[in-house]
Amino acid sequence: MTVLDDRPGPRWPRPVTVLDELTELADRLSKGVLPVEARPAARVLYGEAIRIYARVLDGEPGVGPDQRARVRAAGRALVAAGGSPDTAADHLGRVLSHLVEVAVAEQRPQRLSTVVSVGNLVLRDLLTGARDAGPERGSRPRWEVVQRLVAGEVPPGAEHELAAGYDIVLLRPSEDVPRPRLAELLDEFEGLGVLGAPVDASVVLLIPATLDYSPQRAVEHWAARLGASPWCATAHRSRDRIASGYEEAADILTLAVASGRPPGVFRLDDFLIEYAVLRQSAVTDSLFAIVKPVLANDMLRETLSVLIESDFNRNAAAQALYIHRSTLDYRIHRIEEATGYSPMSGRGAQVLTVAMTASAVADVVRRREVPASPTRDAVAGQGFAYGKRCSQ
């Protein structure tokens, strides 16, 4: 006969799950929300996000409309209680980053793109809810028109005021811009016939195709008013496809910043190969596998990065690295051994360049943010700057 010992004593704790860790992290973060009255709303918001992530990890393909509505409602409640949507967005980013790091990147890489997409939707819904509750609603009706257009909606009555086509211009400031100054600048653009609004961490301008005003002029106007040039990505679409143009411009902007380009104007033509590759997660994974040994070796990583920056000119690369040509040749041989591709062949240079960009962008996506002022050592945590320095 088996005797069960039910006397008090130490018991093995229940295994801690990833969701337990996320909940604990969210609880800690919510304690830093100010004012204190906004903390319950923050906990509700973070809880909604964690429940969404749990379902995605269980295999759901995305986030449902009811879930998104609850996130927007939580965002409105947070702002109504005096909480900061910027703080909440930062906290949600940290929760998602932890999720990707401990449960997705290594254990379920096939879910990475879905998790990141859902994370972006959660953030967007938070900001939408916050905007709906904020004092600017109604005082900035044009902002709402732009924000709804890039989300794929056409506000009632707006279709009669829209042009047939637009240049969709996405601007990422290289320095922080105070909200009142941004509002003044957007008013100036509106006076020129350009619709504009803040969307997530960027600014969207919709320039009518019939208006004699180029994206380059918009960037120059921005720089003249704020004293610093932004990163700018552009796409052209008919008025019924503004949302797809915004998504394309957002991808281009991610590529430009993650690959170390300085502020300037970028189009799809600047990243045709990288854009096509990064739309296919399986191809991205294969490219990352090629350069993974190089990324793990500081010397080889720096050498390949400098070679790419130098357009694979050995003399220029050796000078930039402060090494002898023979030392550079040895490192190039090491890179070829590690990757199977010679940096000095046409195909090898192309593959390695795209692979380095893919790894940098994938890392940015995992972190769910693009650095506001990237440096060579900050981008993607890999010290990689891609390609030529383009003129502005």
UniProtKB/TrEMBL annotation:
Source taxon at top rank: Bacteria
Full protein name: PucR C-terminal helix-turn-helix domain-containing protein
All residue ranges annotated as the PucR C-terminal helix-turn-helix domain in the record: 300-357
One Pfam family, short name: HTH_30
Origin species: Kutzneria kofuensis
